[in-house]
Amino acid sequence: MFCLLLGLTLLFFASAIELNGCNSFKSCEECANSSNWLGLKCEWCASDNSCVPFFFNSCPLTSQIEHAYNCPCEMPKDIVYDEEFVKEKILPLIAGANEDDPTRLQKLLNCPFENVTVGNVFEVPCDLLNTTKCHAYTAVVHSEKAIVISFRGTQGIPQLLLQGIDFFVTKATTPFAPTGGRVFNYYYQAFHRLWDSKIAKDLVNYTKLFPDYEVWSVGHSLGGGLASLGAAAVVGNGFRSSDKVKMINFGQPRIGDRYFAEGHDRLVPFSFRIINIHDPVPAIPSVEPIGSPVDGPFHHRHEVWYPKGMEPGAEFTVSLMAEDRSGFDAIQQFNVEDHLFYFGKDLPNWPKTAPTC
Predict the structure, then answer these.
(1) CB count, 10 Å around CB of 201?
(2) Where is the secretion signal located (predicted)?
(3) Tens-digit pLDDT profile for residues 52-66
(4) Which residues contact 14 (CB under 8 A, 6 or more apart)?
(5) What is the pTM of this model?
(6) What is the pLDDT of residues 11-67, one digit of tens each?
(7) Which residues, 6 or more positions from 162, have their beta carbon under 8 angstroms from its beta carbon?
(8) Between helices 222-236 and 185-194, what is the axis angle to 10°?
């Protein structure tokens, strides 16, 4: 008798969940923002377009969507990933941040651009102890009608260690006003030391001199994260409207939480995080497990992943989600070389090997 009553009770609750629970929600956004009548959080299953309670979720891990922000979202029709534009225009601008000498940088950029003027090259201490340096430059590409901010990537073991301490030990974050949400302290400090004392002054001048020019914020690795902050700050501080700002980076780590990511998407819809096959840096720090009560690191859109490398003609995928467990997030093995080489170019050493004009 006891077993019969227990079975009937379980059947009742299962039926109640089915009839009055998460399955009543028919869209990802509605589902992932909701709970059923028992208070169980709902999750969307992308593989069969169903809404289920978290604790009753048999959906494959690669298809589970916990947050409405991460629901698949089509890009606006006027925002398109253009590989040739990235290889021919953006790559030299990103790699050029590894050149210290503004005169040589000018000669390097004269080759891919018909009319470009290097503005200023900046280097500042980027941590509280002044033990590491952060580097960026500004330029105006008249032939493209673009004002450029380019940020250098991680240089040396000390800088790598300080970022690692932020990511994995202290996990300290700071609110980032333009987007809302929080970003890791090292990135916040590095960005503001460059922005407050250097970059913002150039933007004031350039945006007044060239009111119809776009602003491009670009970078690699550490510089990719700073480029994301830079693009959001350009819009958030009123230098340009969202439709006049482009952000493209290579190998960016997760630099802030989900609220930062959502704010970034709102301010900078033209935003592409490009990832080479097994680059380890975009995988760190790791996203929190599904069901975690902590709002941890989260990527912003749009991920462009080259799953078989970057040889000419290589396939790529543009994810409709910020964190795509069926895309790059599914990678388990990594290769540091894939972080240093993008589209066949050794980014840190590009200034030494690229032609000058």
Answers:
(1) 13
(2) 1-16
(3) 887 767 788 888 999
(4) none
(5) 0.90
(6) 445 544 453 478 889 999 999 988 877 777 899 999 899 998 877 677 888 889 999
(7) 127, 131, 132, 186
(8) 60
